[in-house]
Design a protein that fits this description.
Largest sheet: none
Structural class: mainly alpha
Distance between the termini: 34 Å
Number of helices: 10
Oligomer: single chain
Order of helices and strands: HHHHHHHHHH
Length: 213
């Protein structure tokens, strides 16, 4: 019972930190808008909501991203303005969550100070903030991949949770399916030794899952 309460407090604390971080990042940014790649995906989701075939063949259309299109389908009834507001809120939430996951990985491997430094470096890079401000899909993609790594580090050979997170990432960018394939090889102990031992023994992060770095 005590352990369950501690886990619940930890999760609530993480959620509170992510929400507070998202609000702070939004205030620091001062501006936010949805980029054309995400707008196209939301528009295609809206077409699906209306029972239409998405217009993938329009000139200079970006690559389809199924997860964003699903969001567009679900959020379509809210109207265009509310839909964009939700997407921007999710974008800053994903950015803050990336910082929390990076902190958690750094704390587990090298201590809390290293985790804080890593998260601070990540969240203060202009390129990263630019992607968050413009609601690019790369930030939630990175979040799913890093989250999968954190789950694996905490519980070696976690299996389904890691694969589910990588599948979500794969619905944003196809590279994640390669990670899923490598993870299958890993949990089945079929991963080539060269990939398992690519880091010197003294520099390898503690716990399984370091290979995914």
């Amino acid at each position: 019972m005590k352990a369950s309460l501690q886990r619940l407090r930890g999760r609530l604390g993480a959620l509170s930190a992510i929400i507070a971080g998202a609000v702070l990042l939004r205030l620091i940014a001062g501006v936010a808008f949805v980029n054309y790649d995400t707008l196209y995906a939301l528009g295609w989701g809206g077409q699906l909501a209306r029972g239409e075939t998405p217009a993938y063949g329009v000139p200079i259309a970006p690559t389809p991203h199924p997860l964003l299109e699903f969001l567009g389908l679900v959020l379509y009834p809210l109207g265009a303005r509310a839909e964009l507001d939700v997407i921007l809120a999710l974008a800053f939430g994903a950015l803050a969550a990336c910082g929390w996951v990076i902190y958690s990985l750094g704390r587990r491997w090298f201590g809390a100070a290293a985790g804080l430094l890593a998260a601070a470096i990540f969240l203060t890079r202009a390129e990263i903030l630019s992607y968050g401000v413009r609601a690019y899909l790369d930030i939630p993609y990175l979040l799913f991949v890093l989250w999968a790594l954190l789950v694996e580090v905490r519980r070696p050979r976690a299996g389904a949770p890691v694969l589910a997170l990588l599948a979500m990432a794969g619905l944003l960018r196809p590279e994640a399916w390669v990670f899923s394939g490598l993870y299958w090889l890993y949990i089945l102990e079929l991963l080539p030794a060269a990939l398992r031992t690519h880091l010197p023994a003294g520099e390898r992060p503690q716990g399984r899952g370091g290979w995914l770095c």
